[in-house]
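Quick question about two entries, pasted in order.
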Amino acid sequence: GRARSGIIVLPCGAGKSLVGVSAACRIKKSCLCLATNAVSVDQWAFQFKLWSTIRDEHISRFTSDNKEKFRGMAGVVVTTYNMVAFGGKRSEDSEKIIEEIRNREWGLLLMDEVHVVPAHMFRKVISITKSHCKLGLTATLVREDERITDLNFLIGPKLYEANWLDLVKGGFIANVQCAEVWCPMTKEFFAEYLKKENSKKKQ
C-alpha cells in the first residue's frame, strides 16, 4: 500500500520491465526511468506504451540522438545513466532537459540493470536527481567491483527475489541447463592465474 525504495531481483525473461511499469502506474506520479544505453531507452519507452494507458506525448526519451522535451505536468522520462551523470559541455537543448530533470521532484526513480552501473556514476545520478521512491531492477545482485552494499545504501534493501528454478518449473521462463567446462592451463598461465595481483582479471 505504500511505496518502498529498494531492489527487485528477477531473472532474464521474468518480466522486469512489466514490474517497473506496474510500479510507476501504481504510484501515479512522474517517473524518471534510467537505462544503461540508448537501445534500452527505446525498449523501455515501448514497454510503457505496451503495458500502460499513458499517451505518447507523456513519454519522452532523452539520449544523444533523441531529445524529446518533457511535456505536461506529469509523465515519464526515459534516459541513460550516462546522460544524467555527464559532466562535460552540453548542447543548449540538452542543458534545458537536464535542468528539468534536476529541478523536478520525481515520484519514482526507476533504475534498470543496477548491478552494472559503476559506483561513482551511481552516486552522481542519485545526488543529481530528487525522488520520493527509488526502485532498482536487476537479474543478478553480483557486482564485479564487490560494492553491492553501496546499492543497498543508495537505493534500499532487496525487496523481492524470484528463484529462477521455481519460474522454470512453473513454465514462466525457458529451461536452463548449467554445465561446468574444465579448460587445461599451461604451467606458466596457471602460475600467473594464482598470483594475488591478477585476482581482478579473474572476474
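Here is the second entry:
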Amino acid sequence: MTYGGKVILGDRPVQITLRRTWGKMSLWHRAKFLYYIVFQSLFLPSPEDLNKMLKDMDDVDMLTLVIQEMSKAFPSLMETLLHERDMYMSSKLLKVAREHSSVVAVVGKGHVSGIKKNWQQPIEVQRLMELPVPRKGASKLKILASIGAVSTVVASGIYIWGKK
C-alpha cells in the first residue's frame, strides 16, 4: 500500500465455504466428522513434537496435507475446501490481472497447481457462491440417527477423557 498497491482479497468468503462443505456432507459423514474432530483434539501432539513435525515438513503445505488426509474419509472436503476455492481464486486473479498491469498474488502452496489448472477456463463463479438448499424437514429416523451419533461422540469423548 506504501507503493500505491491495492490489496484485493481473492478467496471465497469462509462462511460460504464452510456452509457449502457442511451442506454437501451426508448425515453419516457429519456425525463421523464431529467424532473425528473430538477424537483428534484429545490426542494433539505436544508443542515440541509439533514444532519438530513442522520443521521436518518445511516444504509442504500443512493445511493441504490435512485436507487430503481427511478427504479419504470425507470426499466432499477436498471438493469444497480445495478445488472450488482454486477455481474461485483463479477466476478472481485473472479478472484482477486483466484490469492491472502488475499483480502480486499471495496464495497457499496447495492452491498453486489448481489455480494454474483453472487459469483462463470458463468458471461459473456464481455457482461457487450458491449456498446449499436446506433439506425439507427431518424424518424421525434421521433425528434418531443424529441423536445416536452425537451420543456416541459424547460418550466416546468422556470415556477417552476419563482414561487420561
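Reply: Residues 10 and 93 are 7 Å apart (CA to CA). The radius of gyration is 20 Å. Hope that helps.
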